[in-house]
Amino acid sequence: MERRKFIKTCCYSAIGIPIAATLLQSCGGIYYAIANNKKGKLVISKSEFIQLKKDKKINRKFVLVKTEGLDFPICIYNIGENTYSSSLLKCTHRGCELNVGGGIYTCPCHGSEFSIAGKVLEGPADKNLMTYKTETDNENIYIHIS
Fold first, then answer.
1. What b-and-e string marks burial along 125-144, b requiring 16 or more CB atoms within 10 Å of the CB?
2. What is the mean pLDDT of residues 14-26?
3. Host domain of residue 61
4. CATH assignment of the domain containing 57
5. Of 82, 86, 106, 107, whose Cβ has the fewest other Cβ atoms within 10 Å?
């Protein structure tokens, strides 16, 4: 294989694999949960993470929430039993709305990547995402947005 063709193939693979992972993750569809704003807390029912398909219960890995006062959605990620992480989907590099998929957040504008905990994985962004204190009880998830 020629050097130029090899480099070209590697570049396409490096770009294509994350995009394919994002597309495959999003095949399940992006779900916007219903949230109530009570005194600076968003309240989301844990049942929002349950999807019924052909009489089967499937647990969603994440849900999105849009709320007044924020220009970007918040992603609530289920990272374990009764453990959730909440991040504002605004890239800290240039303010683009992030994509969710493949267990990471990706910026479609300049390629920054963030962990589901909001930590920078890949630049050009050099600041972590805005994350929110998240608590739970038996029925609900509480996100402190103020």
1. beeebbbbebeeeeebbbbe
2. 51
3. 3-144
4. 2.102.10.10
5. 82
